[in-house]
Amino acid sequence: MPDDLIRLKDGELLPVKILRYPLSSADQAKVIELWLTEWEETGFGWLPWMNGAHAKALVSETALAWWLDTAIATATVCYPSKDPEIGVVMNVVTRKDFRGRGIANHLTDLVVNRAFHSGCTAAYLGNTPTRHSMYENCDFVRLAGAFMRRIKPGAADLESSLFSAGQKTSVRPADWGDIPGFAALVAHPLETFLMDYPRGLVSSKYLAPERGLTQFSSVWYGSRRAGGDMHVLTGATTHRILGFGSFTPGLGTVKNFGADVDFVCHNAYLHQAALLLHSLINAGKANNFLRELRLVTAVSDEWKRQCASDCGFGETIAVSEQLRFAKQEVALVAQKMSL
User: What ranges make up the beta strands (E) of the chain?
Assistant: First the structure.
């Protein structure tokens, strides 16, 4: 028996099966075969995810619509397993022969409502910015660049709740349950120009983001594969993300003996940035191979350099490299700390 039915514009009913991760090998094969009609790969590591590598922290559910014995469309939602406030929608795809019938809209609505029923008050997704996408038909609103958001009907103003001042904060290593909270943070127009120098992530206040949810996996994989780590500043709930940072060994001029470090916080929590930076410094010190940390900032990011100075980083020096965004060069400066 199907878990649900969706009715198309022509009145046809399609059965839908809801798959909760970890998935069986047979279900993995069906889902991947469908995803491969649209993508060769994404930034999320399909097999570990489907095998339940992140299931302890992140609830993942995939809705599959069927026509006879063929899986023809899919949509996936993820939200934290503890204290869910925000969900993320991803991997929405319909086989070409079945497009234009509203199937993706139905599946997106279905998975978003499952997240809302589980306690989430908002859902985010990332897609290529266009004048109009099918997600507007599902009540999503474009925030900036690739980021779109849908609010649960009747929910209070999201930002005033998520990023309200005065929350009790703590710092810990990131986990995959942080993806939704991370999406809410980086979709917000933060005061910092550079959010993550090693990956070239820029605040949406200055540049419309071209990447959506894969920003998390870029920082997570990019730092950890190099032998570093990613940390988050959390607020009143387990996966409410008020800031994040990373240290990434072996980049540029610090190759073989040092690491690039970077961090960012919500505008209301810049005063807590030192807590996050100290956590990254201590993690760097625990790495026996590292001798130096380097922080590279845009010239405009004065608060970040002041925070670094207060935490023991040295004087600001100009660097020869520049970043180019939207046809303009961004001057960079660096500070270093010996470990």
Answer: 4-7, 13-20, 58-67, 70-80, 86-94, 122-126, 141-144, 147-151, 170-173, 194-196, 201-202, 229-234, 241-249, 258-265, 292-298, 317-325, 328-338
The domain in which residue 85 lies consists of 4-155
Torsions phi, psi for 204 (to 5 deg): -70, -10
The CATH number of the domain where 79 resides is what? 3.40.630.30
The whole-angstrom separation of Cα 38 and Cα 44 is: 15
Phi and psi at 222, nearest 5°, equal: -60, -40
Say whether pTM exceeds 0.85.
yes
Q: Please indicate, yes or no, if residue 200 is contained in any of the structural domains.
A: yes
User: Residues 242-274: pLDDT tens digits?
Assistant: 999 999 998 544 456 789 999 999 999 999 999
Do 47 and 149 fall within a single domain? Answer: yes
pLDDT tens profile 215-239: 999 999 999 999 999 999 999 999 9
- Of 269, 86, 261, the C-alpha closest to 169 is 269
Residue 164: inside a domain? no
